[in-house]
């Protein structure tokens, strides 16, 4: 006789069994997060108004020099902290511990990075391969030494001038701001300086139609459609970065109205596609050509992520992002629920809509109700990221999700906390940089207790090209010491020629191939 349950029903199919197992895991996950994270928050330290604004009873310490921001709608926003150079350098991990009760309620805080901390831009001429001179040989007769050259002897003529391409960017000035190419750069002779290199960057087009299941007229939900293309030369990327970019403003309702005008348009929208360049490896040469200083993410103390193996680009190493007006990043949280450090180098503000980590369950349920995704994919722990949505602030309010609006200016670093879903857009041309960060509390909860709290994409998602399984492991003793040595050795890496093949990830697949799948459904791009 076949197996039956206690109600006498027929045995469930394999899919039904998988769904039940996933539902049980989700329940255990929520209970574990409540026990390991939220229970540590003192309810007397903060209270929330009916409109979702947080009020904190305990002030931040004076050495953080913190100020509360006010959003465009008049509601209280996040905090901007401005530590001294010495405190930023020596007490970074302590700073994050102090900010954790605020970050686990607000979702993110801003840090003004001291100018002294940034490493100055490196001239690209210092990164070019050194030319090797041929050995000199003496002639039989007395006379000046000559350099021996290969090939037949030809009549000496004036050197042929190569066409000089206008460089896409100039090196930054003392203030760290980018300046457009000048006539002197264009007319500079190759005899005085080598041509500026033209590294490759990724490019994709983006569209923002209203989601087909969005029914609320005043609180719509949009779909961020990103199409990955081949890498292109930086000089050909249509980057709208000018000296006036810093003054550009695109309010949230203007972003949403642009989405309304694109309804029922998924490709070749008549308003014109917007171009975004994301997930670019922050190589020394790309930094130099862009004229960027180095925020030295890898030198910040207390990052437990640096002890995790294998090494993954975009998690252990920083990525650069080149934004244009209306370019967006879809709703997501970081890989492995880690913290993220997001530095704004130059250009127009980047605007973030960030949800409270306390409401992560409400966000996930809202997305599940919106999308007609097969049940087996809705059970994925990365379901929100796969759907690639941009949810209006009104939709968040209707469903009881508390969120804040954060406008990030150049020189500021946005720190997002675990379980804080976030989305946003660029108000104009800009350049930003991001990397993952793991605190001790993060490691204890999301890695050591990973079976209860966090799981990467399953086989179904990976077979559909919707996600990449990233299993991080921490060693002990000698293994962690080896990981620390790897970190030290990679703080200052040598530049490799841009003509080399596309960087490889730890499992041998190209970064471009893996990221293409992620970007089509909304990646961790910020």
UniProtKB/TrEMBL annotation:
InterPro entries: JmjC_dom, JmjN. GO terms for biological process: methylation; regulation of gene expression. It comes from the Eukaryota. GO terms for cellular component: chromatin; nucleus. SMART domains: JmjC (SM00558). Residues 1-21, 129-200, 489-511 are annotated as: Disordered. GO terms for molecular function: histone demethylase activity; methyltransferase activity. Residues 7-21 have a biased composition (Basic and acidic residues). Residues 146-164 have a biased composition (Basic residues). Residues 78-120 form the JmjN domain. Keywords: Methyltransferase, Transferase. Residues 296-454 form the JmjC domain. SUPFAM superfamilies: Clavaminate synthase-like. Residues 180-194 have a biased composition (Low complexity). The keyword Aminoacyl-tRNA synthetase does not apply. This is Similar to Lysine-specific demethylase 4D acc. no. Q6B0I6. It comes from Pyronema omphalodes (strain CBS 100304).
């Amino acid at each position: 006789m076949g197996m039956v349950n206690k109600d006498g029903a027929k045995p469930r199919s394999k899919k039904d069994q998988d769904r039940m197992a996933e539902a049980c895991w989700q329940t255990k996950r929520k209970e574990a997060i409540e026990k390991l994270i939220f229970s540590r928050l003192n309810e007397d330290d903060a209270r929330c108004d009916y409109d979702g604004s947080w009020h904190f009873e305990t002030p931040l310490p004076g050495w953080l020099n913190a100020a509360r921001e006010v959003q465009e709608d008049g509601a209280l926003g996040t905090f901007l902290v401005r530590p001294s150079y010495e405190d930023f350098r020596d007490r970074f991990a302590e700073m994050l511990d102090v900010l954790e009760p605020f970050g686990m309620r607000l979702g993110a805080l801003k840090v003004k990075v001291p100018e002294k901390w940034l490493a100055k831009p490196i001239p690209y001429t210092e990164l070019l391969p050194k030319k090797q001179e041929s050995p000199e040989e003496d002639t039989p007769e007395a006379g000046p030494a000559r350099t021996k050259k290969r090939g037949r002897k030809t009549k000496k003529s004036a050197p042929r001038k190569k066409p000089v391409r206008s460089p896409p960017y100039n090196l930054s000035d003392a203030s760290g701001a980018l300046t457009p190419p000048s006539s002197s750069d264009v007319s500079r002779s190759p005899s005085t300086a080598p041509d500026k290199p033209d590294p490759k960057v990724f490019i994709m087009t983006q569209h923002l139609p209203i989601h087909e299941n969005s029914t609320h007229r005043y609180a719509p939900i949009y779909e961020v459609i990103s199409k990955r293309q081949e890498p292109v030369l930086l000089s050909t990327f249509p980057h709208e970065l000018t000296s006036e970019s810093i003054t550009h403003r695109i309010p949230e309702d203007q972003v949403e109205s642009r989405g309304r005008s694109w309804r029922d348009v998924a490709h070749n929208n008549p308003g014109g596609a917007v171009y975004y360049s994301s997930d670019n490896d922050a190589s020394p040469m790309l930094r130099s050509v862009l004229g960027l200083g180095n925020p030295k993410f890898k030198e910040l103390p207390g990052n437990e992520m640096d002890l995790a193996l294998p090494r993954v680009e975009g998690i252990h190493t920083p990525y650069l992002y080149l934004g244009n007006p209306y370019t967006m990043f879809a709703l997501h949280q970081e890989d492995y629920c880690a913290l993220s450090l997001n530095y704004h180098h130059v250009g127009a503000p980047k605007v973030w809509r960030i949800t409270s980590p306390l409401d992560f369950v409400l966000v996930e349920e809202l997305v599940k109700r919106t999308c007609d995704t097969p049940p087996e994919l809705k059970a994925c722990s990365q379901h929100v990221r796969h759907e690639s949505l941009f949810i209006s602030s009104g939709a968040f309010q209707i469903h009881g999700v508390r969120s804040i609006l954060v406008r990030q200016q150049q020189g500021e670093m946005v720190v997002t906390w675990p379980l804080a879903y976030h989305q946003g857009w660029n108000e104009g041309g800009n350049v930003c940089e991001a990397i993952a960060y793991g605190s001790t509390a993060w490691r204890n909860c999301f890695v050591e207790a990973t079976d209860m709290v966090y799981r990467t994409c399953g086989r179904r998602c990976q077979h559909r090209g919707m996600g990449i399984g990233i299993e991080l492991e921490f060693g002990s003793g000698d293994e962690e010491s080896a990981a620390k040595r790897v970190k030290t050795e990679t703080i200052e890496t040598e530049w490799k020629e841009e003509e080399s093949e596309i960087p490889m990830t730890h499992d041998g697949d190209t970064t471009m191939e893996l990221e293409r799948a992620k970007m089509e459904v909304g990646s961790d791009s910020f």
